[in-house]
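On clarity, I found the account of how folds are encoded harder to follow than it need be. Since the whole study asks how a given chain folds, the encoding of that fold should be made plain. For illustration, here is how one protein appears when written out as sequence plus structure tokens:

:::
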Amino acid sequence: GLQNNVFLTQIYETRMKWAKPYFMDVFCAKMTSTQRSESANHLLKGYVPPGSLMHLFVRQYEKMQFDRDSEESYQEKRTKLVKTHHNDMSPHAGWCCARSEPTY
């Protein structure tokens, strides 16, 4: 049975580490896991009617993902890249590091 499957046993033992890699590309500014869950549920309810059949749920979930990704891409494209210019501190840093004792 599955209880004796070495691979499944090993990955089940590391289950506490699953969520971070899965949500690695999702920014959730200081939201708790409960807040993220409630937010996801609210979003999903806009796509999937209660009591839906599994195939409809999957289809609508994929549509929700597509819509979110499209909106994210649109926002990324319309956001202007701000370039900043920094003075090169290398000569100054080299000069500071070369001194044997600090002088005040």
About this structure: The two ends are 74 Å apart (CA to CA).
